[in-house]
Amino acid sequence: xxxxxxxxxxxxxxxxxxxxxxxxxxxxxxxxxxxxxxxxxxxxxxxxxxxxxxxxxxxxxxxxxxxxxxxxxxxxxxxxxxxxxxxxxxxxxxxxxxxxxxxxxxxxxxxxxxxxxxxxxxxxxxxxxxxxxxxxxxxxxxxxxxxxxxxxxxxxxxxxxxxxxxxxxxxxxxxxxxxxxxxxxxxxxxxxxxxxxxxxxxxxxxxxxxxxxxxxxxxxxxxxxxxxxxxxxxxxxxxxxxxxxxxxxxxxxxxxxxxxxxxxxxxxxxxxxxxxxxxxxxxxxxxxxxxxxxxxxxxxxxxxxxxxxxxxxxxxxxxxxxxxxxxxxxxxxxxxxxxxxxxxxxxxxxxxxxxxxxxxxxxxxxxxxxxxxxxxxxxxxxxxxxxxxxxxxxxxxxxxxxxxxxxxxxxxxxxxxxxxxxxxxxxxxxxxxxxxxxxxxxxxxxxxxxxxxxxxxxxxxxxxxxxxxxxxxxxxxxxxxxxxxxxxxxxxxxxxxxxxxxxxxxxxxxxxxxxxxxxxxxxxxxxxxxxxxxxxxxxxxxxxxxxxxxxxxxxxxxxxxxxxxxxxxxxxxxxxxxxxxxxxx
Length: 585
Description:
By secondary structure, this protein is α/β, with parallel strands linked by helices. The protein contains 20 helices and 22 strands. The strands form 6 sheets. Strands 1, 2, 3, 5, 11, 12 and 13 form a 7-stranded mixed β-sheet that branches. β1 and β2 form a beta hairpin. α13 (361-369) crosses α14 (374-382). The longest helix is centred in the last third of the chain and has 25 residues, at 423-447. The radius of gyration is 23 Å and the shape is globular.
C-alpha cells in the first residue's frame, strides 16, 4: 500500500537526550505529529557519586565517589523511556497502536555502554555494580583526555591516513579514548566486557534483540573510514593489551541508516504498548536525524541542534579535510553525499551553569515576581543593551572545545569584568561567545572549500529570540528555525518510515514528512558590523589560549589533578584516576 493511501499508518520516533527521552507519534503520509511523551531519567547525569539505589556502597561502606570530568548514566533509565514516554505519546495521539508500523531511535553520540555477549550492561552484574567503569560513559565524560592525547600524538607521528578525516584530532569523548581509559584504569571490567557499544545501538538491541552497529557513529566516533578501523599495529603501539580492541570489543555488523535492524520483540512490545514485529530502524545520532526533519538534505545546508551542547551537521558534494571537525563520513547523513559534523561541547550547559552559580538570589526573586524563568528574565534585561555595551568578551569553553580545537582541557573565561558588571552583562557575553564559537566553525568550513549557504536551528534553544538574532548577526547568515519542537524525534520517525518500507529512501521520506520552517531571523547590517569587531577580539583570545601561545588552562588542569587525585574502587593498585573539578552544570 502506498504511503498516501488510507487507512493511515504511523511511526514512533524516540529521541534520547542528555537528561530525558522524548517520544513522538508521527503520521506517515505527511509527517504530522499527533502526540508526544517525555520521561526524565531518574538518575540524570552521574558526576559526583554512583547512585546507591543501583550501585549500593563501596567496600568502605561509603557511597562510591567519582573524580571530576566524569559523566555517567544508568542504562535502565533508557529502557524506562520505552515504558513511559512511548505509551504517553500513544495516549496523547489517541491512535490505535495496531496502526504503528515502525519505531526508530536517536541518541547522543559517543555515549558508550560496556556489555556482555547478550547485551547486559556490566553495571547490572552484581560484582560490577559499584565499579564506575561498568556504567554508561555519557558523551560529556571527558576524563579520557590523556588517552586521546596519546592517540593523537601517535597518529600524527605515524601519519595515519584517517586522522585528517577528523580535522587532525580525535576527541576524548569518542569510542577509542574511552575504551583505552577503561582498559588502563579497570582492566578487570575491560576483560569482562564483550562489546563496547554505542547507546544508539544498545537501545536498538533492546528493542529488536539484534546487535547492529550503525554507520553514523561508526564513522564519526569509531574512526571507521573506507571500510576499516585503525590497525592492530597502531593499537598495540598505544598499549599492547589494546591490540585486539577492534576485533574483540568493537567491530560488528554495520547497518545502513534507514534500514531495519530487526523487528520489535515481545518483551519490548510489552514495555511500549506497540505491536510485536514492527520494524526497528538502525540506530542513529540526534543531530544527524534532525537534518531530514529540517528538510536539509542538500549540500550547504548547515543544521545546528542547540541544547546542552550544539552539534553542527551538513552535507557536502565533495570530500574536504576541515581542521577541527568531528568527522566527515561518506553517507553519514544521507546516501550519496559526504556528511560533515562539528560541534560545541557546551552551550545550554554554560547558560545553565551561570544561572545556577553566578546569579544572586535577588535576580531569581525578581524573575519569580515577574512570572518569568531566570533565563527569560536575564534575556529580557540583556536584550536592552547595545552590542558591546557590557564591555565583555568570553570564551565558550566551560566544557572544553570540541571544534575547532578539539581540546577538552580548555576552560571558560570572561574578559572585561569590573565592579560595575551585572549578571545580565555576563549572561549576554556568554550567549555571544557561543555564537562566536559557531562562527568559528562556519569559517573553518568555508576556508576548507565546504560552502555554507543556509543556517537552520533545531533544539530547545531556538525558543530564545535574542539568542537566535545574535547568531544571525554574529555569523552574517539568515537563520531559520525548524517548525517542529521535536526535531530529532521527528527525524527518527522519518527513518522509521523508511525502515518500514513506506518510502524508498530518506530523501523521499524527508520531502513528505519533514518540518516546514518556523521563525526566520535576518542579519541586521549594523549588528553584523558591531559583532565583526567583537569577533576579532574573540578570535585573538581563542588563538592565544587555544593554540599554544599561553597554556595556562592546561597547567591549571594539571595543578587541579594533583590537588584532587583519587583512586576509584575496583581499579588496580597504583592505577590513579586523574580528578578534576566539574566545570559544567
